[in-house]
Q: What sequence folds into this?
């Protein structure tokens, strides 16, 4: 199962990547919006995890692109931070499937990914 | 009185005054035309309404409560009150309320007579501004003058010149006092004065005043004594500085007319009530070869005159009319009793309320003696004998202490070591005490900059002591002093917790770990080498991030918010709760441009905690490496 993780914070990205790989996922990463869009254009994923505040294109723009430009139904889980409630609502409006607030437990993340990819 | 005459009176009254009658609960039953005209209501609109309709919001609820409490007792009540008209315009009224009581002494209605004094009040405001400006204008050159005198004193002068300079200084002090008095009188007259309510320390006040006056009258042969009644509650509340001002002025007056004699302050309990105690203050002045009487006559006149009369009496200083006003305003009484020309007693009484809701903790913390063994005192004195005496005293009091001989050593030592208090001799060769004081207060970083300092000198001039205190000393001790005075002044001046206690606390704080590795362990399945990789990444990248934040702190709030957001992701992983919270609130504040958020303090905390975190992370990294 292929997962794209979009997160500009290297440390967090590495931690998630490590955990997901250990759990048997094929993990692709992007540290900014441009790199993320390139990857999305190149191949399809089973799930996308995206931070909201990333350089060049925001998480919201990524969601918009996936849903409205590519018309793809790939499950998207938003990785948000406390205090971004307004953006989360926007993300849902654009078609995000779930969200997690940092700091989150990695096991919970795995459960949510499974839930999204099972459907 | 024939009816037509009564009607005439009524007409005359209606011509000049605003008249209103209301029931006990304030319901208006009668208003005359003047009320309607000024307040811009029709009579129909007012009758049946509550008197509250004129409330402007200027006065406190206590103001109205106090007013009501007086009239319910049947007392005629006079005050200045601000009223609001229907169109919102505001008026100042001179108000007299005449209550009517029934046969059982219950209030059933009251009549108010008001006069429009708005113009007068506005004049007062203008006058006040004018006075404030003038006093500032007088004081500015006066301070210039005093500084020059100060400089002049430091040049080599002969005795006669020094004498002249002392006269200049005295006169300048006098001018300054006059300006202050004038301002005070004006403040009192315009009702601007507010009284504080803080615990009163009668003994402390009497003691400090007698010390000051003993110094002031060294050339005269006067003995000062004070006596404080033990039955006085130690927790009475009142305006301490105003009380001191009253006593100061009275003592000054007594001093003026006494060459040889005795001045005794007696503070006693006159009446003990449930909520307050009436305290009597007596200043008895026995002098041989009195110079006064004429002044006393004028003083008696002043005391007996109408409370509102602000005319000055010949020979009476402004200070005494201030005394009178201050006493009356605090519901006190005053009297002067001249037994003979040589024996006069000025008595005033003050009602002081008991502290009903005493916070025990507070009082205890004030009265608890600070444990000498916890404190470190630095002493500087150039005189060998004085140093020896200090040493003996410190040993006796059981303080930790260091004694040095010069100002230079003080400055040097303070850079290396922490102390809780400095006893600083003012006259030292090389670097004078006031220079040391100034250096500490201006050039040292916190918290040394604010270290309590007691200046010690043989100076007896009030002005010089004031100068030292102004330069930044917390207290002054004049030589020669009693051992008990030294002990007391140290206890009073020492901070509540000592440097030692503080540094222990700090150590404790430092021992509590900021980093919580639980989250990281979950992400990494406790894989040590991967944990190490992430921690090392954090350790190497964070300083750069902090630097960047510091650089853009003032200039780019949006980018700062972004960086804080980024940083939060990292610190979340390391479970640093304090930083998670701080970065969150600050990011929100930045984005929402919250004005009253304390950015400086929060950012400072973020940086400081981060530095501590880095130290912790380094230790964790070393630990993991050693276990690999």
A:
């Amino acid at each position: 199962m292929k997962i794209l993780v979009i997160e500009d914070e290297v440390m967090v990205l590495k931690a998630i990547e490590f955990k997901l790989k250990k759990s048997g996922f094929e993990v692709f990463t992007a540290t900014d919006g441009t790199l993320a869009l390139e990857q999305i254009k190149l191949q399809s994923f089973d799930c996308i995890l995206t931070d909201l505040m990333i350089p060049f294109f925001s998480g919201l723009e990524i969601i918009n692109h996936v849903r409205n430009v590519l018309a793809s139904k790939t499950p998207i889980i938003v990785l948000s931070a406390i205090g971004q409630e307004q953006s989360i609502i926007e993300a849902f409006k654009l078609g995000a499937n779930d969200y997690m607030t940092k700091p989150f437990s990695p096991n919970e993340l795995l459960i949510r990914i499974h839930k999204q990819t099972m459907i | 009185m024939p009816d037509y005459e009564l009607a005439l009176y009524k007409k005359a009254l209606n011509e000049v005054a605003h008249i209103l009658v209301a029931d006990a609960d304030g319901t208006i039953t009668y208003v005359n035309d003047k009320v309607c005209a000024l307040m811009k209501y029709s009579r129909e609109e007012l009758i049946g309404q509550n008197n509250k309709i004129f409330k402007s919001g200027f006065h406190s609820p206590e103001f109205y409560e106090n007013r009501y409490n007086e009239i319910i007792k049947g007392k005629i009540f006079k005050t200045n009150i601000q009223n609001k008209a229907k169109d919102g315009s505001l008026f100042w009224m001179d108000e007299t309320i005449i209550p009517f009581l029934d046969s059982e002494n219950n209030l059933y209605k009251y009549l108010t007579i008001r006069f429009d004094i708005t113009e007068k009040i506005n004049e007062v405001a203008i006058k006040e501004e004018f006075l404030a400006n003038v006093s500032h204008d007088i004081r500015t050159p006066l301070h210039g003058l005093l500084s020059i005198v100060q400089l002049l004193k430091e040049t080599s002068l002969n005795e006669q010149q020094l004498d002249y300079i002392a006269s200049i200084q005295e006169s300048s002090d006098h001018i300054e006092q006059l300006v202050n008095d004038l301002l005070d009188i004006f403040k009192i007259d315009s009702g601007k004065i507010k009284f504080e309510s803080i615990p009163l320390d009668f003994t402390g006040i009497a003691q400090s005043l007698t010390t000051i006056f003993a110094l002031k009258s060294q050339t005269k042969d006067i003995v000062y004594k004070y006596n404080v009644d033990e039955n006085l509650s130690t927790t009475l509340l009142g305006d301490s500085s105003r009380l001191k001002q009253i006593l100061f002025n009275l003592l000054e007056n007594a001093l003026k007319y006494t060459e040889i004699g005795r001045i005794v302050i007696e503070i006693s309990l006159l009446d003990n009530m449930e909520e307050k105690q009436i305290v009597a203050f007596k200043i008895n002045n026995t002098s041989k070869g009195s110079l006064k009487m004429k002044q006393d006559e004028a003083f008696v006149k002043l005391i007996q005159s109408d409370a509102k009369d602000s005319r000055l009496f010949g020979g009476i200083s402004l200070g005494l009319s201030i005394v009178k006003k201050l006493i009356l305003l605090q519901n006190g009484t005053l009297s002067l009793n001249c037994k003979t020309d040589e024996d006069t007693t000025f008595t005033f009484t003050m009602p002081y309320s008991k502290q009903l809701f005493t916070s025990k903790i507070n009082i205890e913390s004030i009265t608890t003696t600070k444990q000498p063994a916890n404190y470190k005192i630095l002493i500087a004195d150039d005189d060998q004998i004085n140093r020896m005496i200090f040493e003996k005293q410190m040993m006796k009091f059981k303080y930790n202490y260091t004694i040095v001989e010069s100002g230079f050593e003080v400055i040097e030592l303070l850079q290396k070591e922490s102390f809780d208090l400095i006893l600083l001799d003012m006259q030292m060769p090389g670097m004078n005490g006031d220079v040391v004081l100034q250096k500490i207060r201006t050039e040292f970083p916190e918290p040394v900059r604010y270290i309590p300092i007691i200046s010690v000198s043989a100076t007896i001039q009030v002005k010089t002591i004031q100068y030292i205190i102004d330069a930044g000393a917390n207290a002054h001790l004049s030589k020669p002093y009693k051992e008990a005075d030294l002990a007391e002044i140290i206890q009073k001046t020492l901070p509540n917790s000592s440097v030692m206690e503080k540094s222990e606390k700090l150590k404790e704080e430092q021992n509590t770990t900021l980093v919580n590795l639980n989250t990281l362990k979950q992400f990494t399945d406790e894989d040590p080498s991967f944990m190490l990789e992430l921690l090392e990444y954090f350790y190497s990248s964070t300083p750069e991030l902090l630097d960047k934040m510091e650089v853009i702190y003032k200039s780019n709030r949006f980018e700062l918010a972004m960086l804080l957001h980024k940083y939060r992701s990292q610190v979340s992983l390391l479970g640093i709760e304090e930083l998670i919270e701080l970065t969150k609130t600050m990011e929100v504040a930045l984005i929402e441009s919250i004005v009253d958020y304390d950015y400086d303090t929060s950012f400072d905390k973020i940086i400081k905690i981060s530095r501590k975190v880095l130290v912790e992370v380094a230790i964790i990294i070393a630990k993991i490496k050693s276990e690999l």
